[in-house]
Amino acid sequence: MVKSGLTQTLLVKTSGNDIPAVDTNNLERTRQGGKLVQAGFTLVELVMIIVVLGILAVVAIPRFGDITESSKVSATKKEMQSLKVAIAGSADAIAGGRYVDRGFEGDVGFVPSLLQDLVVKPDSVSVYDKLTGLGWNGPYIDSTDNNYLKDSWDVSYVYQPSNRRIISVGGSDSIIIGF
User: Fold this and answer.
1) pTM for the whole thing?
2) DSSP per-residue letters across 121-145
């Protein structure tokens, strides 16, 4: 055996040449005090690691659940606000002293009986007349995949035109927007 610096190499003699046979630094077993000792983790150490990871998971998962819930609430409120503007218009959108975004109610004169009336003209409503500025001038909201009809929990909105409100009941608490 030849010792050089930090490495130990076993040499095999063959016809006058020394050939490295085994590099002891790469062995998983070493000799200490004449006994063969294996390097690695004990069962107790592995169990402790699993317990610590389990505790971390128990603490972290509810926090991620809260983040998911709060983002669904935020997205639903934003969508419900868009529905409100589509129905009642936006008083903030003024150009030339006139309301630009009048919504369904501003164009037709009453609130829609169904949320679908924001996308498809109801038979009982006339088409928009540019001269009078009255009639259905929609669609008033993006209708891609009919996503505007459901909240972030994939539950349909409760639309109450007589009470002038939209309710989301998908989350743990109901969200109510009046218009």
Assistant:
1) 0.61
2) --TTSPBPBTTTTBSB----S--GG
